[in-house]
Amino acid sequence: MKKLINSPDSVIADALRGMAAAHPSLAVDLENRVVSRAGGVMAGKVGLVSGGGSGHEPLHGGYVGYGMLDAAAPGEVYTSPVPDQILAATKAADHGSGVLHIVKNYTGDVLNFRMAAELAEDEDIRVVSVVTNDDAAVEDSTYTAGRRGVGGTVFVEKLAGAAAEEGADLDTVAALATRVNEATRSFAIALHAGTVPAAGKPGFDLAENEVELGVGIHGEPGRERGTMQPVHDLVGYALDVIHADRPIAGDQLVMLNGQGGTPLIELYGAFAEAVAWIEGHGGTVARSLVGNYITSLDQQGFSITVMSLDDELLRLWDAPVSTPALRWGR
Amino acid sequence: MKKLINSPDSVIADALRGMAAAHPSLAVDLENRVVSRAGGVMAGKVGLVSGGGSGHEPLHGGYVGYGMLDAAAPGEVYTSPVPDQILAATKAADHGSGVLHIVKNYTGDVLNFRMAAELAEDEDIRVVSVVTNDDAAVEDSTYTAGRRGVGGTVFVEKLAGAAAEEGADLDTVAALATRVNEATRSFAIALHAGTVPAAGKPGFDLAENEVELGVGIHGEPGRERGTMQPVHDLVGYALDVIHADRPIAGDQLVMLNGQGGTPLIELYGAFAEAVAWIEGHGGTVARSLVGNYITSLDQQGFSITVMSLDDELLRLWDAPVSTPALRWGR
User: Which one, of A295, A265, A252, lies nearest residue A62 by Cα?
Assistant: First the structure.
């Protein structure tokens, strides 16, 4: 597998140099590997930090900016950031009113964020952590006790970020993040595995007529190996699983997400099927995202993330956001 | 090759249904296959229309909206839209002050847009056409007499769109579009070919150590088949070709574009190399885009598009834009 890189060892450093050059709104600390807002301290604002293994771009660095994160800590590809790095991100996000850690539920991430939170408390920064676990595919998995944190993390970052921008305090922002996570479910299907640069070959093998149903964002196994079907049926499978876990009713926020190697024209086609399914079950797609928002390198496939909206969540979703990957209203 | 589709015949119709559902700011005419702004007539504004084969998303439908296009006509995958379809787009874009056709230089596109322009003139809509031909790779190609129109088309749509939004008249907008095209050069390198749904297999074959240097957006051959190199060298090759054709000096607008199947983390790494090359040659990257802006289905690879900026072009680039794929300032 050919990769557009200099060497597997330099992938993160090279990408961070590119992010720094592409986005003057970001401050990129190449030594500590922290992406934060260039604006400096915003007195009184709760800080939001996320992070995790790289390879899921634009997650998380692409969501640093007005109305979303204050800082992100990108680890090596598919590898948790280290505690000192998360501590540096926490300090960069600290405006004196405490910091929320948004942590996808993976054992390494949870452990390292917890250690970073303790280090931050030693420096008198109050930290509250919210662990996302929205993947409806499996109860436990290769890298997790409990469900995996996946696409719902984007919703948590946007909605908690909007609340923090409005001046909500740390406990309020954390409670909102928890509520968003609980209202959100995701399911992913892979057609062709992504390739980790250091491995040099796809992370798993799928035959020409096979798909992985319920795949994780690092190619972890899902519920079952299935047969390739028209997108109508694949989307229906995903939404059936989500609906059985948490009924889809009323106004929905829907993300039809690409895993990195699937073209936008196919994602739009998949989204059309998702809308038809949801409307056929009495729901409404009130807001949506279609595109690459949480990826798995060059993996081919999609995920669907669905959240029930109420007036508060709708207002926070529509609030202005200005980050490299999500931008509206300013 | 597995595709996330219902059938090769329904790809465009399904994608348009998805676009319509995802973007309330768009009016999608499923019968005529025209994507236009939902806002209706804007008296006195010059209308901008583009179009071409599908498979290059977000081009062109993703660039319909405030500050860019008024309407787009998507053909079948890698196939020109038909004259009646382009005529329908032209009517949808007509606000009474004439319409600019922005046409990528491909024989079919040029021919069908010309016929559509004649049909529009019969209905008393004045049309001026600008043909983009920014690809520095080859002088003539599989589907063109003369150079191919590629990534520079995005710059033309943004900058001419900003001028039209400001109230410039048709001749002024057309002259600006011509000037932008002339100031812009692109070069693309493919690592792995994309797959047209109806074909079911990659459009061309590259060995594990090969790349196509100067590839077109439909997988057309470039200058030569080369050996896989570190991204530093691939980016250097591309910029050397561009620089020899039109010297890169002063403030530059740079797009580091993915061909659809290359992950964002790699595009950022490639962009870092482009910035280093340009700064090493005395230029400055004043503005940039990094991501999937003009794609070739799921093809792996990148293109670089470079334009020299002056005060007017910089101002028009920074002007507000609100489309599905490009959005800032409002």
Answer: A295
